[in-house]
Structures are given as structure tokens and as C-alpha cells.
Write a structure and sequence with these properties.
This protein has 255 residues and is α+β, with helices and mostly antiparallel strands. It folds into two domains: 103 residues, Alpha-Beta Plaits; 115 residues, Alpha-Beta Plaits, CATH 3.30.70. Strands 1, 2, 3, 4, 5, 8, 9, 10 and 11 form a nine-stranded mixed beta sheet that branches. The chain has a two-stranded antiparallel ribbon with strand order 6-7. The longest helix is centred in the N-terminal third of the chain and has 14 residues. It comes from Paractinoplanes ovalisporus. This is DUF2344 domain-containing protein. InterPro entries: DUF2344.
Length: 255
């Protein structure tokens, strides 16, 4: 990688790179602010030629898209960086991945195409593991949740405690095939929920849906659930999520 340049005398952005990264294992408890600090240090260690904003207090050109809540794992977080010099995306990925702690993993890097990354994300798919909950009990709670047109839940926000509907943003929720029970279950029952939620305002998070299951059916897991974001993207009419980097990937050469 080229040596990272200091912010003085800012050079223009000549290339934009979009990254998909994962938060795994104990690093799921890293807050977005902590990740941002770690990522900026990683840029320095990897000597990435990051571009900076103008003004008296320049900042590296980094744009984050829909960060997962603290305590939630993810296989599909996205960000975009602006560079002062062109780089090979795969070499950048390898250098950044090596510069970050294991569990904060750079999964993919592509040259950014036209349009906004944020405009390509309007929904997320989540996996919720409910330890010590029998799957039939979870299925009954999901059924009760789906039968309601509105499920009001409360959450503390920056504006104070707010009440909002956790049902309308949910486009899919089901108890999945239980054949691959997590090792953490240790012989105890474990219900696994597959969830797709649209991005709305205020945001409906997996913990809000769990609150909705409690409101709808009294479901209260005895231990904290494990939540992982599996995908983000644009939701099609068929209920599939289109990866936001699909439009940026180079088409495969004919064989």
C-alpha cells in the first residue's frame, strides 16, 4: 500500500472503495464509535492513502451505512472510503484486514460505481438465537405476532421513551429449520428465528421485535438471545435482498 498522507494540503478523491466487513465473536460488543476509531487506526497501520475533508479540522473520507447496534454480530456491514491514489481493492482488503483485530474482518472490497451506497440499503436479514426456548413456543409467539396489524413497543431514545409499531416494518419472520443448533445451547432447546425488517423511522431493531413477541404472546427468553445481521440490501418484490455491492462488482469474463 502507498504511504498514508497527512491531512495538510488535502489531495482530491481519485478513487472510492466500498467495503463489507463483519463483527464476530466478542467483537460484536464493539460500539460503532469504537469501531470507527479502530478502523481509522487500521487505515494508518495499513498505510492507506485516505483522502481528507477540507477545513480547519480535516477528517478522513469515510461514510458508514446503517451500523448494527452494539452487542449484535454482523456478517454484512458496509462503508465507503475516498482515496488520494488508486489502489488494488483486494490488496487494500488484505492490508486492512491484517491491521484490524480478529473479529473485525474485512470481507470484500470493490471500486465504487455511480450512485449512493446508502440508497441501495432498505432492509436487513437477521438471525435470532433464543437459547432455552422450545421451537414450538417460539413458533406460537411468531404466529401471534403475525396475526396482529400493530404491535406497540417502547424503547428509550435520545428524545426519551418512545412508543412505536414493531409489526409494520417486519416483512418476514419465521422459526427456521432447527437442524443446526448452536453449540452454546449445550443440549438445551434453542429456537432460531429468521427475520427481515425494512428500514423505517424510527428504526425497528431485532430487540424491538423481541419486545413485540413479548407483547403479542408473552415470550420472554430466560437468557439473552444472540443476534446476527446476515445481510443488508434492497428488498425485491419477491422478498429477496439484493447485495448493495452487486452493482459495483466487475462482471465475470466469459469462460
Amino acid at each position: 500500500m502507498a504511504k498514508n498522507q497527512p491531512p495538510g494540503g488535502q489531495a482530491p478523491v481519485v478513487q472510492r472503495i466500498r467495503l463489507r466487513y463483519a463483527k464476530r465473536g466478542p467483537l460484536r460488543f464493539t460500539s460503532h464509535r469504537d469501531f470507527a476509531r479502530a478502523f481509522e487506526r487500521g487505515l494508518q497501520r495499513a498505510a492507506v492513502p485516505i483522502a481528507f475533508s477540507q477545513g480547519f479540522n480535516p477528517h478522513p473520507k469515510i461514510s458508514y451505512a446503517s451500523a448494527a447496534p452494539t452487542g449484535v454480530g454482523s456478517e454484512a456491514e458496509y462503508l465507503e472510503i475516498g482515496l488520494q491514489a488508486e489502489v488494488d481493492p483486494e490488496q487494500l482488503r488484505l492490508a486492512l484486514d491484517a491491521a484490524l483485530s480478529p473479529g473485525l474482518d474485512i470481507v470484500e472490497a470493490v471500486v465504487a460505481g455511480p450512485g449512493s451506497l446508502a440508497d441501495r440499503i432498505d432492509a436487513s436479514r437477521w438471525r435470532i438465537e433464543l437459547f432455552s426456548v422450545d421451537p414450538p413456543v417460539a413458533e406460537a409467539a411468531v404466529k401471534a405476532f403475525l396475526e396482529l396489524d400493530e404491535v406497540l413497543v417502547e424503547r428509550m431514545t435520545k428524545q426519551g421513551r418512545r412508543s412505536f409499531d414493531a409489526r409494520s416494518a417486519v416483512t418476514h419472520i419465521a422459526v427456521t429449520d432447527q437442524s443446526a443448533v448452536p453449540s452454546e445451547a449445550d443440549g438445551a432447546p434453542c429456537a432460531i428465528i429468521d427475520l427481515v425488517v425494512r428500514q423505517v423511522t424510527p428504526a425497528v431493531r431485532p430487540d424491538d421485535v423481541l419486545s413485540g413477541l413479548r407483547v403479542a404472546a408473552g415470550l420472554e427468553p430466560p437468557v439473552p438471545p444472540r443476534v446476527t445481521r446476515l445481510a443488508q440490501g434492497t428488498l425485491t418484490a419477491q422478498g429477496e435482498l439484493v447485495d448493495p455491492l452487486d452493482a459495483d462488482r466487475e462482471p465475470a469474463l466469459p469462460g
